[in-house]
Amino acid sequence: MERIVTIERFILDNQPEYAAGDFTALLYDIALAAKAIAAKTLRAGLVDILGQAGSTNVQGEAQQKLDIYADQIIAKLCDHTGRLCIMASEEHEEIITIPSGYQKGRYVLVYDPLDGSSNIDVNVSTGTIFGIYRCLDWDHRGRLEDCLQPGNKLIGSGYILYGTSTMLVYTTGSGVHGFTLDPDLGEFLLSHENIRIPEPGRYFSGNYSYQDYWTKGVKIYADWLAKGGEVEPPLSGRYIGSLVADFHRNLLLGGVFMYPAQNNYPEGKLRLLYEAAPLAYMIEQAGGYASDGRRPIMNIVPEKLHQRTPLFIGNRRLVEEAEILIAANP
Ligand code: P6P
């Protein structure tokens, strides 16, 4: 019988030496929230949770009912446990403080509760992205400054992919590990230990309908990708329109995802704090690289919670080529 390793067992056996029980327990809390969101997502066509909630979020984007559910379940599972000093979510304009009646913890949780949620109604994979930092000081109850940390200060990050199966993939700085939800057991079981991005990359992901909006360097890079660049075999185009799904495929099979700055998104579309930086930490742990086209995503210090960034992420060779061509063609 194959070794059955639950995520709880794996976290305990592999928790970083600095981690007290709180860090491990926080990962459990996220896994529990993931199960709750997965249960709703699997039934999205059957219960009244499809469709728009009739509200817009801080981004001005129409909120999906599942967006709101995912955001609330994460916040409610994590706000009273004494493990966090502060939270930040794509669905909240301001930081989410820990209610005064509860003990303050030592960690910061930043998250996008349901990325790609516009795909829910057409049964395309969606995902949750999260990052974990240490609180910066003990004199305060958790402040905006605790959230505005660069990716190179992350101590954990991961995503949950609600797809043909539900997967939780995370890193705490000792490699990237994937767990698949067994719906019969209701447990995340180890299915992808120590994921490394394969070389050479096989896929490129980008929304080429925006080509006219791209800078000269990005256009040259996009052509280089589409013509296979100098890699063998030539790359194939794959674009799901759901960041976590595109990222996950490229992580497992090799490839690069790009969402550059462009006329309709002059700073890029994706969010630095709770999308690009957590995925950058993961891709670097898996042997890849993430850039904004000029510099490592991991080094960018956020100035605002919902700051956008251009994103090139995947095989190091493919991402570095973006930096070379963009620099050579300003
Ligand atoms: P576009 C989904 O709305 C999202 O934030 C990411 O999940 C995805 O990669 C991107 O936007 C798709 O954007 O402009 O190509 O539809």
Textual characterization of the structure:
The chain has 330 residues and is an alpha+beta fold. The chain folds into two domains: 7-192, Fructose-1,6-Bisphosphatase, subunit A, domain 1 (Fructose-1,6-Bisphosphatase, Chain A, domain 1); 203-328, D-Maltodextrin-Binding Protein, domain 2 (3-Layer(aba) Sandwich). Helix content is 29%, strand content 25%. The protein has helices spanning 7-14, 21-42, 65-78, 144-147, 216-226, 243-253, 272-285, 316-328; strands at 52-56, 62-64, 84-89, 96-97, 107-115, 126-134, 156-162, 166-171, 176-182, 187-192, 203-205, 236-237, 255-259, 270-271, 289-291, 308-309, 311-314. It has an eight-stranded mixed beta sheet, sandwiched between helices. Strands 12-11-13-17-15 form a five-stranded mixed beta sheet, with helices on both faces. Strand 3 and strand 4 (96-97) form a beta hairpin. The N and C termini lie far apart (58 Å). The mean pLDDT is 91. The chain binds 6-O-phosphono-alpha-D-fructofuranose. The site of 6-O-phosphono-alpha-D-fructofuranose has 8 residues, from loops.
